[in-house]
Protein 1
Amino acid sequence: MGKLGDMANKAKEMAKGHPEQADKGVEGAERMVDERTGDKYDAQTDKAADAARRSYGSNSTTDR
């Protein structure tokens, strides 16, 4: 696997070990994109954030 794939796998493993911190990072990234785009892509960022959370086994969901 290439370096990018290795880095992605390492990040996923770290997120599995620290899901609360990973949730904060995902939430922050989602909020930043929403702010910069004026919530134009809110549905897409919600979907992407949920997929990211599922990838490391988080049970957290953000209520809006």
Protein 2
Amino acid sequence: MSTWSEDELCKIAEADDLHISPFREDGVTYGTPTWIWSVVVGDAVYVRAYNGKASRWYQAALRQKAGRITVAGMTKEVTFEPVDGPINDLIDDAYRAKYRSSPYLAPMIGSRARAATVKILPRETTT
């Protein structure tokens, strides 16, 4: 399994432009990029679906488990893992710190979005 570099994590932590594209049903074609908020906690990148588990990109991410993201001028092949448990408290704190002035913060740390938390990991690709 691949990991994020310190430089990548810093860029992602500072960026407000993450676009997520899970694979479509064929497992080859990328879905339409969806702009979402992202946070970095420790050595990992996390995102949440504003509309919760009903969100299309969230459902595709769980089903396909892979795709790509574009953020801070980088395009990365990635995998997606659902997240649950105590790490969500740290993710909430990261959302509060990064997006404290946004009127959308409360829903992003609410139970609906929190239930749709995804960890994004870089994926090794073969050429």
Protein 3
Amino acid sequence: MEHQVLQRGSDWLDGAGLRPTRQRLTLAALLVGDGKNRHVTAESLFAKVKEQGESVSLATVYNTLRAFCDVGLLQEVTVDGTRSYFDTNTHDHPHFYWENDGTLTDAPANELQIVQLPEAPEGTEIASVEVVIRLRPKA
């Protein structure tokens, strides 16, 4: 990997106070090294690691993605309760889920209007609202 890509990954980890282990740095560089936001699954990131010729187990990828979420570097988006995507854009925003190929992309936040939410049950508060808009080709 080129120096600038690794440096972006290292800076990203440093900003969250995470020690840059070899595995974390490899994954961070793949996630943010080009400066673009992305949505990945653990499996797709694992495949990319293998493609780069790196040696990281799938369990390490899962654990590292969870650690990145825990410190606020990633946002986890669950689709159908069966598949988790990890988003490098941690600001509140809606998503499109493309059923035909199983990908997740950002949807335009400025076009979404949530007029009213139900009141939270007594003793609770709303922590967040996730909007996933499922898309498929017209029949």
Protein 4
Amino acid sequence: MTTDQAGAAPGYRIAKFGIGAVVRHRIYPFRGIVFDVDPVFDNTEEWWLAIPEEVRPRKDQPFYHLLAENAETEYVAYVSEQNLLPDTSGEALRHAGIHEMFVRDDRGFYRMRDRTPN
């Protein structure tokens, strides 16, 4: 596969957010931490069509798997890049799954846990 000048394969964009990035949704009141990135939409057509057409995201952009939370609950979300913004609040996330996947450093940044077996 060849790449363009930015290093991305043709038809793909470089993801704006990396693993461990804390983000918030542009429209809906939730935030989360990125634990996986798809370079383009990689979910079911049914899932995509269930989104109201007026807010349905384009498929030709990175999509992020998030350990997400809002005021009431914690869940896993699949969100397009166009609907995410950096979360600069500095507040720790409470999602129970975070501690299995990430370590938070003294500066408040999250990094993947070392998954090397003992």
